[in-house]
Structure formats: C-alpha cells, structure tokens
Structure prediction request, 149 residues.
Amino acid sequence: MIVYMPMIIEAVFTMLACARLGAIHCVVFGGFAPKELASRIDSCKPKVIVTTSYGLEPGTQVPYPPKVEEALNTYCTWDGAKTLPRIIKQRVDRDGLEYTDLNDHYHDFAKLLDQETEVAEVVPVLSNDPMYILYTSGTTGQPKGIVHH
Prediction:
C-alpha cells in the first residue's frame, strides 16, 4: 500500500491498520512530485494508494489527486498502475468544498470506515516479516526501497 498524504491523523491510522493486518506499507512524502511518486509505485507495486484531497502549504492548498493521476497515467511503467484502487480522505477546504474531480477508481476514506462494522483481528506475523518500505533519497541514482521489519 502506498500512503501519499500530508501529516494528518489519517496517515497514522493507515500505517497502524497496515501493521495490524500484516500488510506492507510505503509512505511517500506528500511534497513529492508525480515522477517521484511513480518511481516508488513502479518499484513496490502496491495493491492500493491512500491519499487525500489536498495538502496545505503556506498560503495555498495543493490538490493531491491530480498528482496521483499524473504519476499513474504519465510516469508509471508498471502495467497495473492505472487500475490501482485509490482511497481518498476528503478534506473540506476553507470554503466548505470537497474535491470532486475524481474518477471511478477513488473510494471515500470516511464512507469505507462507516460501512465497516467489525474490527479486524490482529494478524500474527514473525518479527522478521516486512512491515514497511522506506525509500532512500535517490541522490546517488534511483531511489532504493529499504524493507524494514
């Protein structure tokens, strides 16, 4: 799972949910451009992307879905990238508006939580099973995914 979000509580929820389920996650810094996001998607081949409607930078809002779509449709070379399900945390902007320019691959984070009635059981894993992938900066070439236990 790729977690492409700013520093919001839902990013933490997502990482902890992955750990509970024994799923491997990869956090990609929300400030990364689509090309850098695409290189990580191509490398780890996730089953889903979790993102948000926008992030905040000084004086502006930065929409994330266009960056995700550009990464998947322009830069990704992995065949499965274009059809990846995307879960989006809708953030209401300063004017009370939600991001609505989404395709059919997007699923609302809050609606998915509301639909779930059962708490998932903890999946036991070995101490040396992979937990997450963290990518190096790529200053010496292609970023390398480091698997952490």
Q: What stands out?
A: The two ends are 16 Å apart (CA to CA).
